[in-house]
């Protein structure tokens, strides 16, 4: 029996943690720069285990996020499916980048996510997003290294020393 099979709990627990982190209340000043935790966790799983996390998985957790966060039904699902699709398409390249370059790629994907979200708000006649909304990909990009290392250690069973 493989060590990876014994760690099957890591994927659902990491997704649940990302969903809960998205629900944590933040002060009004910090709200616009909240990292998109679900996208970071999904990006890790699509890059490292594409057989377990694909477009269907992204769609399902996106719908769950839509229900939990109370937004437009399908908004998070669309955003996460686009993210997963791009990651699947360029997985072979991104996977072998150093983590610093992976962080830049993830930052670009998070900016793309913001563009999709802004387009959805525009087409659904929702209020326009404030300019501070565009800062959120930066903390997400900076958090890529710790998120990647934490999930990799949990998935592979490595212990910190």
TrEMBL record:
Localization in the cell: Cell inner membrane; Cell membrane
A Pfam family hit: MreD
Coiled coil (UniProt feature): none
Function: Involved in formation of the rod shape of the cell. May also contribute to regulation of formation of penicillin-binding proteins.
Full protein name: Rod shape-determining protein MreD
Family recorded in the similarity comment: Belongs to the MreD family.
Tagged with keyword Nucleotide-binding: no
Keywords linked to the UniProt accession: Cell inner membrane, Cell membrane, Cell shape, Membrane, Transmembrane, Transmembrane helix
Membrane topology: Multi-pass membrane protein
